[in-house]
Amino acid sequence: MEIIKGGVTAASGFKAAGAYAGFKKLKDNQFKEEINDMAMVVSDKPCNIAGTFTTNVVKAAPVQWDMDVVYNNKVAKAVVVNSGIANAATGAEGMKACDDTAKIVADAFGIDKKEVLIGSTGVIGYEIPMEKIDKGVGLLKEKLSDTIEAGTIASKAIMTTDTVNKEVAVKVIIDGKEVTIGGMCKGSGMIHPNMCTMLCYITTDANITSEMLQKALSSVVPDTFNMVSVDGDTSTNDTVLVLANGEAGNKAIDSENDDYKTFAEALLYVCTEFSKKMAGDGEGATALFEVTVKGAKSKDEAKVLAKSVVSSSLVKAMIYGHDANSGRILCALGYSGVKFDPEKVDLFFESKVGKIQIAKDGKVLSIDEDFATKILSEEAVTAICDMKMGEAEATAWGCDLTYDYVKINGDYRS
Question: Where in the sequence is the active site (predicted)?
Fold first, then answer.
């Protein structure tokens, strides 16, 4: 696998664009080009598609629309996204806005409205102003390009409280053909396991059936996006979509053979990188916080333990304060619901400056506090929990909890 530059336009046959349609308020000294709030991705050919969506009972209108397209139509050519209004808790009007949006895009490109996927992110409870959608689609169509830069502009257009855009792309060889998988995502707050506040759009030129594409996506989501937590809130709009147009020309992947495994491994890498990027860019965060649980009895138990630690507000605050308080991690493990022997647990902290053990056999150790502080002061910090109960392990990703998280969310609507 080769890691390459780019995102949604890295794969052959995909174009993208970003534009300012007026969903976001312009602040002093900002230009429209700097605050694009609509994005589009279009494939030259119809794509087989797959998706996973929020587990929140309150599902935004675009989530409901996309679920219908993925599960029933199974083919799409275009994705259009607005940033600034979530189109959630909007009732029948919200669904009509999706239908109207799809018709506008379909008419612009001469396709069926059920070949249009829709994404929205932003404030809940506001209706979509269709005049802005109409304006935005027109602008986006004019700007569509297959360049890396166009993909980057699109990735910036879907940001809300994100501080950086998020793109990943890789190449692999399948059936002697070069296959590319690339994508863009946004996510910074209202993020918790069982999907997170994220919109993620992945494109590939692989020739793969919709059934195998869905199987691959569903197989990697539990170990990637479902292992991210920023603040314990599961959003109404979470959506991950994969579009495959087959332009690489490989023999169709229609079973779980070696070609499927190669594709799934590459997709796993892409989704893992997106998970890390979202966690590290959590609202107000200063550090990516990774929790690896080793020696658990089962993979499921390892996941529960890792999520419990990475989601703990006290542990997250501890990371922000660079304080190696092993008691908080032991506590989070203990209330996870998993049964284990607390007198067997070893705990470590690790970052690029080194590694330190902070507990042995469940007992807090006397440590070099200055060295521990240095480890915890890095931009990426890992807590390692060795349960010494089995062979299973799992990793979860989160971030520290800072004053700025409250500031950002205290006045989010205004």
Answer: 197 (nucleophile)
* Ranges of H-type helices in 288-414: 299-311, 313-320, 326-334, 369-376, 403-410
Same domain, 359 and 394: yes
Cβ density class 236-269: b for 16+ within 10 Å, e for less: bbbbbbbbbbbbbebeebeeeeebbebbbebbbb
**Secondary structure (DSSP) of 97-120:** HHHHHHHHHHHHHT--GGGEEEEE
Alpha helices by DSSP H, 125-203: 130-143, 148-157
- In this prediction, residue 409 carries a pLDDT of 63
Q: Are residues 299 and 385 in the same domain?
A: yes
Instruction: Cite the annotated binding site for substrate by residue number.
Output: 160, 186, 197, 283, 409, 414
> Within 13 A of 112's CA, how many CA atoms are on the CB side?
8
**One domain, residues 232 and 379:** no
CATH of the domain at 295: 3.10.20.340
The answer to whether residues 128 and 254 belong to one domain is: yes
pLDDT at residue 161, as a whole number: 79
Q: What is the domain range of residue 351? A: 288-410
- In 3D space, the residue among 105, 104, 102 whose CA is nearest the CA of residue 114 turns out to be 102
pTM score of the predicted model: 0.87
Q: Provide the token pair at 355.
A: 């590694």
Q: Are 229 and 244 in contact (CB under 8 A)?
A: no
Q: How many helices (H) and strands (E) does the chain have?
A: 11, 15
Strand 380-386: give its sheet, edge to edge.
363-364, 354-360, 346-351, 380-386, 288-296, 392-399
Q: How many residues does the chain have?
A: 414
Residues annotated in the binding site, as ranges? 160, 186, 197, 283, 409, 414
CATH of the domain at 182: 3.60.70.12
**Domain tally, the chain:** 2
Same-domain status, 239 and 147: yes
pLDDT of residue 190: 46
At position 170, the amino acid (one-letter code) is V
Residue with tokens 């979470």: 238
Catalytic residue flag (residue 55): no
**129: which 2 tokens?**
């102003």
Q: Which two tokens stand for residue 6?
A: 């780019």
Catalytic residue among 90, 161, 197, 272: 197
Cβ neighbours of 190 (radius 10 Å)? 26
